[in-house]
Design goal:
With 446 residues, the chain is α+β, with helices and mostly antiparallel strands. The protein is built from 14 helices and 9 strands. Strands 1, 2, 3, 4, 5, 6, 7, 8 and 9 form a 9-stranded antiparallel beta sheet that branches. The mean pLDDT is 83.
Length: 446
């Protein structure tokens, strides 16, 4: 049972969450007040409760200590593994023409999908072996758009091989100085806002993909409807004093368990996807208990089932997105109207599922969530540091990773063709080729 389904408590948390109120502190205070009232009502004094907790401390204290130690240790050993592996930052320079559909990018995602399953517990708890995150980034500085990819060092060669194979005219430039280095961690003199984007519904429900948009049929360039173009236009339309960074996080999805570094065992997403298919099919039965009953489903339900089944055969990733907006001057240059445009630029992916803003570094009711004005600045500083580290630590239940397959990810991030007329989108200026191997080579005249 989910906590949202608990009577009263679920309603309170849903109400607060819907209004973007941080319900952590109110729920704790309500719980403490309810506990004191309940114990006082049955005649139990506070001193008796405290004595009882101390008496059973040999039971709960070691357990609590182990849980805290386990979480901290696994996080520490995972960071050690990531640092040892290293990270490479590529700037992706688009070729002059891209005639391929996003299916080419899907092949790239499939080839770099690595579960990093440990062979034994030593690799898990001594080496910290685990799937490392990849990030695909769209960066606009004053409307000048660049594409970046950050990838673990051991996977860099595989990524470059895959993308060169699918996009022969593309150029990868290894970046020595990260573009984020120009922004100070204390954000002094900078207006800053960070948004987290995720699937609105459960991960087994797919978004509208390039297959649903029939981009896999390879229409003429002028007939393409590329869902990336609204995003690129928003990025190109900002002012010179502004910056907008879009960071797509992904890491290979795999089962969870003690061998993988988790105390709880959890299977992969395919079981939930199959359960969703069964739910749709059973709802179409006149009598689910009747042998040989044939489901009567609508064309929309049939299309949804086909979409889920198609995505079940694709490589699954755990996906999240962060969008950062900065104004390097002052609040006078801070354009709040961009947020509405930003929320619409991801509407092109809406289908059975969609993408939506799940969290941001602000609150609707600051007097409840941040009465002293300290929490929001701390969140903003944490966000800029996490962005630079290419890390994502969920700060609310709705902003965690959701399942997204290679097909869905290729729809969101791929190399756009000339249908994206954005003039500030960097492309290779001319095609390059090697000289023919059969040219005569002789001694030059002295």
């Amino acid at each position: 049972m989910k906590i949202d389904d608990v009577p009263v408590v679920g309603w309170i948390m849903g109400l607060f969450g819907g209004e973007d109120i941080d319900y952590g502190v109110p729920v704790v205070l309500i719980g403490i007040a309810f506990l004191i009232f309940s114990l006082g009502y049955i005649g139990v004094s506070q001193s008796q409760v405290f004595t009882f907790l101390v008496a059973i401390a040999p039971i709960w204290l070691p357990l609590l200590t182990f849980l805290v130690f386990f979480q901290v240790y696994t996080m520490m050993i995972g960071k050690k593994f990531a640092l040892k592996t290293g990270r490479v930052i590529y700037e992706v320079i688009l070729p002059p023409e891209v005639f391929k559909s996003p299916q080419a990018m899907e092949y790239v995602f499939t080839q770099i999908y690595q579960k990093a399953n440990p062979d034994n517990l030593m690799e898990t708890y001594l080496d910290g072996k685990r799937p490392l995150p990849l990030t695909f980034e769209l960066v606009s500085r004053g409307g000048d758009i660049h594409l970046y990819v950050t990838i673990p060092g051991k996977n860099a060669q595989g990524f470059s091989d895959a993308i060169y194979a699918q996009y022969p005219g593309v150029e990868l430039r290894e970046v020595d100085l990260d573009y984020t280095a120009e922004i100070p961690n204390n954000l002094k003199g900078i207006s800053f806002m960070s948004f987290h984007i995720a699937k609105k519904k459960d991960g087994e429900l797919p978004i509208n993909t390039y297959v649903d948009m029939q981009m896999d049929k390879l229409p003429k360039e002028e007939e393409k409807v590329d869902p990336m173009t609204p995003m690129l236009e928003v990025l190109a339309g900002i002012e010179p004093e502004q910056q907008m960074w879009v960071q797509f996080h992904c890491k290979a999805h795999r089962e969870k368990g003690f061998k993988m570094g988790q105390l709880q065992t959890k299977g992969t997403w395919e079981k939930k996807a199959q359960a969703k298919i069964d739910e749709i099919m059973n709802n179409g039965l006149d009598d689910p208990n009747e042998p040989g009953a044939y489901p009567r489903i609508t064309p929309g339900q049939r299309s949804l089932v086909e979409s889920i089944e198609r995505n079940m055969s694709k490589s699954p990733f755990e996906f999240a997105c962060r969008i950062v907006y900065l104004s390097t001057k002052n609040d006078h240059h801070y354009d709040g109207s961009l947020f509405a445009r930003m929320s619409r630029m991801i509407a092109a992916f809406d289908g059975a599922n969609g993408l939506g803003i799940r969290w941001r570094t602000d609150y609707n009711y600051k007097f409840l969530s941040d009465p002293f004005g300290k929490k929001i600045p701390a969140l903003k500083k944490a966000e800029i540091k996490e962005y630079k580290k290419r890390a994502l630590y969920p700060k609310a239940g709705s902003m965690g990773y959701k399942i997204m397959t290679a097909e869905e990810m290729a729809t969101i991030f791929h190399l756009p063709g000339t249908v994206a007329m954005t003039p500030t989108l960097h492309r290779v200026t001319s095609a390059r080729a090697e000289a023919p191997s059969n040219l005569p080579i002789g001694d030059l005249p002295r």
